[in-house]
Write the structure tokens for this entry.
Amino acid sequence: MEAAAGGYFPLSFGTCAIYAGGGIGRARNDYGIQRIAKINHNRWFVQPSFTFKNDWFRIGMGMRLILINFPSGNIDYRIEPEDIAVIQGLENDSPFIFPEFGGNMGIRINPVTISAHLVVLPAPRALEYNFDGSNFGVGLSLDLHELGKKQKKAGGKTKD
């Protein structure tokens, strides 16, 4: 579970935003035959970003600075010793501070945007603890404000 607050500032060419937030969670790894490891984490972050957009294209980039802590966990000691060492290292060596860099691009067909994003964690120390070094995703979003403007125009009203 995570929550954030911040500001979103429109610019002539796009937007600028900055958010800060935090959350709590639990990672659960199932090694089969009822061998399970659970580890709790707390995460705090600050995230500035910039987005350029026009009528048909959107591209953005951002950076997130993360403070993550692993205060407790539960390990079944029948799992592999290498995995036990990584989990114990997370608990003993935290908190960690990591940067994440991300970018997204999308094609806008108002009121819909089809987009792709890539997030990279360029921290060798994070990879020592088996964190994912990157993730990629695709998305489809609906801009309700644009949809409302189209419906008003279709009803004979042209006011934004």
Observations:
- The radius of gyration is 21 Å.
- The mean pLDDT is 90.
- Residues 81-93 form the longest helix (13 residues).
